[in-house]
Write a structure and sequence with these properties.
globular
């Protein structure tokens, strides 16, 4: 059994997948398995990945019969893993050769840490560094409620989702949810189980380009389809679903009553702060329902005339 599992969810990633796999295979820490979950790609992704799998026994290539969406594909990559530690790797990002070794050393040394990640540099489609990014999520409070609240005060880009995690803790979470921002509830849930450790070296390179999922942030309907194609055309109710997911995570976490009460109060305050967004989502949902009812009524009238 390998000590580390790396899940690589991919869909039509022919442009960057080889470069990503090369960066992972160049790790100085070599005791890992690499699970590629191909979401029924229609480009050369399958051919490229099968070539890599044939050349390195640590690589397992799994192809889905259809595109299940990013959320389910991410979950499947983890479900197929067997390592003590786990990390996801996007099919277009890069990891410095010593990145995995640094992360493993932290989890081996610090039993209270559930997730560790190196600092991030943002790169463009050609690999040029755009900027250094400060996540600032070195969450070391012994109280889950303080870690949870601090996460929300600092988190913007969710780079830590690509950190190294304890697989036995990850199994207790809801994993990646199938709606826009579905990675946020997972990261928040992990703070309820232990500490986060930031490695003060720039070892992770996150790529931003027009085809990256990060480019969908301002297009909620497109982002919803990316996470789950079967929900295309539906209202995502992202803010409501995130808030609900946070509440479920708190209820299910192995915390005492006092901590759960503190977390519940924080979520109420969070809901109040987001009241405008929550209200807009409800209004949008009602308009969507009314519009669909009007269309069906119109179709019914037309069918009667015919």
């Amino acid at each position: 059994m390998p000590r580390v599992s790396i899940g690589v969810p991919v869909y039509n990633g022919e442009r960057y997948i080889a470069e990503t796999l090369d960066s992972l295979l160049a790790q100085t820490f070599e005791d890992f398995e690499l699970i590629i979950c191909d979401n029924a790609s229609t480009d050369r992704t399958e051919q490229i990945c099968r070539t890599y799998a044939e050349s390195d026994a640590r690589i397992r290539y799994v192809r889905n019969a259809e595109n299940f969406g990013a959320a389910r594909n991410y979950r499947r990559a983890f479900e197929l893993s067997s390592g003590e530690y786990f990390r996801w790797a996007n099919c277009d990002d890069l990891f410095a050769p010593e990145g995995l070794a640094r992360c493993v050393a932290v989890l081996d040394r610090e039993p209270s840490v559930v997730l560790t990640y190196p600092k991030t540099k943002l790169v463009d489609e050609r690999g040029g560094v755009v900027s250094e990014y400060e996540d600032g999520l070195h969450l070391q409070s012994p109280k889950a409620s303080e870690r949870f609240a601090l996460l929300f005060s600092k988190m913007r880009l969710v780079n830590v989702i690509y950190g190294l995690m304890r697989a036995n803790v990850l199994r207790h979470t809801g994993l990646l949810r199938n709606f826009p921002g579905g990675d946020i509830p997972l990261v928040a849930e992990l703070t309820l189980y232990g500490k986060f450790w930031e490695i003060p070296e720039f070892l992770f390179y996150r790529r931003f380009h027009p085809a990256a999922s990060s480019s969908y942030r301002d297009d909620v309907s497109r982002s919803q389809e990316f996470f789950d194609p079967k929900t295309k055309g539906r209202m995502s109710l992202m803010e409501w679903r995130q808030l609900w997911a946070h509440g479920r995570s708190v209820m299910q976490a192995p915390l005492d009553f006092a901590e759960k009460m503190r977390l519940g109060c924080f979520l109420i305050r969070l809901g109040v702060r987001k009241s405008d967004k929550l209200a807009r989502e409800l209004i949008g949902a009602m308009r969507h329902v009314i519009h669909r009812l009007q269309l069906r009524a119109s179709e019914f009238v037309t069918s009667l005339r015919d």
